[in-house]
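To assess whether the prediction recovers the assembly geometry, we first specified each molecular entity separately, as shown.
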Amino acid sequence: MSESFVKVEVRGRVGLLTLNRPQVLNALSNEVIDELSAAVRAFEADDGIGAMVLTGSQKAFAAGADISAMSDWTYMDVYKADYLGGNWDALRRIRKPIIAAVSGYALGGGCELAMLCDFIIAAENAKFGQPEIKLGVIPGYGGTQRLPRAVGKAKAMDLVLTARMMDAAEAERAGLVSRVVPVERLLDEALEAAGTIASMSLPAVMMAKECVNRAYEASLDEGLLFERRNFHALFSTEDQKEGMRAFVEKRKPEFKHR
Ligand code: CAA
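The predicted structure of the complete assembly is given in tokenized form:
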């Protein structure tokens, strides 16, 4: 049996996914994405999982889509297959939170994959970039849309047009990553953050994720209404009763995730 491209582990209520294609710096072939998508969907369906961490190797989170696979494709090949749709697109429909733990290169589709996670924790050696322009193409998995939303137009244009890489410190200053940690702390930090999230009420976590994402897609008015309706909806959960009673009774809440 061939070795899996995605290592799948469970740590308490956290699902850990590790890209495992080291020979090519975790280049994202369709096979890798199919496996990743299946693993993420399995965690999504598993009531025992409250959050996920997606990581790569120390040298590379992922160095982009698989250039060797793509090099001979024609317009009709990619158009008919709707390349970067399908299982690639399915990843962004996941409702439980996913943290990207990025060490080393996150380039092209690798940077885009990290950006479609809910937030990025970076190791000090992380490097982010959208170097597709050097290959005669452009980012195709959200880079021209998510990067400007994360870092603003000036820096996004700079990265997309010059193909230069941004180190972890610059990425944190620009707002692309939420925290930068020493390389050896990366996985623990991400697992701790995911563990904290997974200990919260799952319905509240899922609605919070959905509402924050709405901020990108709707007018302020629509976003505020969406947030308020979800806030109202959470008063139908047992966890809201438990969370608020526990606060009043000065004890830790015991969430049932319903
Ligand atoms: N696809 C396929 N193979 C890749 C790859 C990729 N994206 N990135 C690296 N590799 C392979 C290399 O070909 C090399 O294989 P061999 O050992 O068989 O030669 C192996 O991984 C190691 O890479 P390097 O020897 O190049 O390692 P390095 O340390 O010298 O350089 C690097 C590292 C700067 C990341 C360099 O590998 C690189 O520039 N990679 C390509 C980055 C890139 O252009 N990404 C965008 C891809 S297009 C895309 O992602 C489209 C989209 O929007 C979805």
